[in-house]
């Protein structure tokens, strides 16, 4: 199984990236014969950045927060959302 973030506008409407994400998910499913689940990714980057900044301020994280760190943490947020929806 694969989990793919589905980007929406703030109001929940589709944007140009929504279609691209759906096409990517369809290609993953076709190419690798796996189930693909799509999860709303709105605000995942903001949540991830806030978590990383909090960790830095508390001393748990020493180095500066880079965009790649935010992207990786946002992927974790999306997976957490999927796990939460499943339970």
Task: Please give a structural write-up.
With 87 residues, the chain is mainly alpha-helical. Helix content is 60%, strand content 11%. It has 3 helices and 2 strands. It has a two-stranded parallel sheet with strand order 1-2. It is elongated, with a radius of gyration of 15 Å. The two termini are 17 Å apart.
Order of helices and strands: EHEHH
**Ends distance:** 17 Å
The count of strands amounts to 2
> What percentage of residues falls in helices of 4 or more residues?
55-70%
Which keywords apply here?
87 residues; mainly alpha; two-stranded parallel ribbon; 2 strands; 60% helix; 11% strand
Give a short overview:
This protein has 87 residues and is mostly helical. The protein has helices at 16-32, 44-58, 67-86, and strands at residues 2-6, 36-40. 60% of the residues lie in helices and 11% in strands.
Write the layout of secondary structure elements.
Layout: E1 2-6, H1 16-32, E2 36-40, H2 44-58, H3 67-86
Parallel strand pairs: 1-2
Helix pairs in contact: 2-3
């Amino acid at each position: 199984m694969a989990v793919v973030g589905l980007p929406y506008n703030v109001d929940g409407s589709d944007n140009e990236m929504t279609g691209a994400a759906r096409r990517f998910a369809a290609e993953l499913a076709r190419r690798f014969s796996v189930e693909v689940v799509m999860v709303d990714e709105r605000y995942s980057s903001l949540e991830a950045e806030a978590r990383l900044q909090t960790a830095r301020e508390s001393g748990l994280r020493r180095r500066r927060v880079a965009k790649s760190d935010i992207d990786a943490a946002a992927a974790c947020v999306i997976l957490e959302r999927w796990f939460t929806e499943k339970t």
